[in-house]
Amino acid sequence: MITLRNEGQPVPVERILVGERLRPVREEGVEALLRSISDLGDMTDAILVRRLQGDDEHDWELMAGGHRLEAARRLGWDTIRARCYECSVEEARLFEIDDNVAQSGLTPLDFAVFMAERKRAYEAIHPETRHGGDRMSRKFQQEKQDRILPFCSAAAGVWGKSRSAIERAVGVGSLLDDAAVDQLQAAGRTLTFVDLKALSKLPAMDQRRVAATLVQDPRANVAKAQAALGKAPRKALENPEDDAAAKLVAQFERAKKPVRRRVLRTLMERHPALFLELAGAGEA
């Protein structure tokens, strides 16, 4: 449950944790903020933070306002004005995404990544909205009466886009490899949605190789990058077991980090003896 604790209290800059972000802080954004602060004498908008428990070094975690926090650090500010909340990790993710989506200048890559992650966080908070639930159950019907809509319908209403547009963005964003996304975002490389869809269909390692080529050659698109890397199809491995394992590994690498963590945790819980055996073989 989200609880607003303070509308705009000064928070020590050094006590704010900046965790893993969906979009990196961009130099041009920080510089624009520094110019604005120089002209106005202050920062117009507060950052959003959530209360941390059990962290000796940090009292707060940043939810929204990465550029504002970085500008404050460069200016040597001891404190920064913040709206302070108590909420879950998934709810904090929604704050981060919505703050970014509300801004202008969002690239198709950013939007696809944000929509895929927002769907994951939204369904973690509202599991009754996932497809495949018992639609005849009392709980499902009650939630329906409370107007908790499936994610794509709700998102379409919020951002004025069609449901199909949200679904396309979610579909592409959920298949993009994290490392490939990091490369493209760090370099500020923008791609069309057509290119992003083509990229998302590739195995994870190929996505990373194509992304590296796209970063090196700003004029290239995904098709040209693939051509530069060679079009020779992969040969099937001689051992059928190796071939099957390779396919499973490729599917695992295409998944987003939360999914990969869940898969590993499930395997460790169900097959602890196998993991102990592999650990022993590694030590030997």
The residue-averaged pLDDT reads: 81
Arrangement of strands in the largest sheet: 1-5-3-4-2
Total E-strand runs: 5
- Unreliable stretches (pLDDT < 50, length at least 5) are 140-148, 232-237
The helicity comes to 55-70%
Structural class given helices, strands, pairing? alpha/beta
The end-to-end span amounts to 49 Å
Could you tell me the strand content as a percent range? 5-15%
Largest sheet: 5 strands, mixed
What's the shape? globular
**Helical stretch tally:** 14
Radius of gyration, Cα only, in angstroms? 22 Å
Order of helices and strands: EEHEEHEHHHHHHHHHHHH
Short description:
The chain has 284 residues and is of the alpha/beta class.
Verbal overview:
- This protein has 284 residues and is of the alpha/beta class.
- Helix content is 57%, strand content 11%.
- The protein has helices spanning 27-40, 66-74, 89-101, 108-125, 138-145, 151-159, 163-173, 178-186, 193-200, 204-216, 222-229, 240-254, 257-270, 272-283, and strands at 3-12, 16-17, 47-51, 60-64, 79-86.
- Strand 3 (47-51) and strand 4 form a beta hairpin.
- Helix 3 runs antiparallel to helix 4 (108-125), helix 4 (108-125) packs across helix 7 and helix 6 packs across helix 7 (163-173).
- The chain is globular.
- 25% of the residues are buried.
- Mean pLDDT is 81; it is low at 140-148 and 232-237.
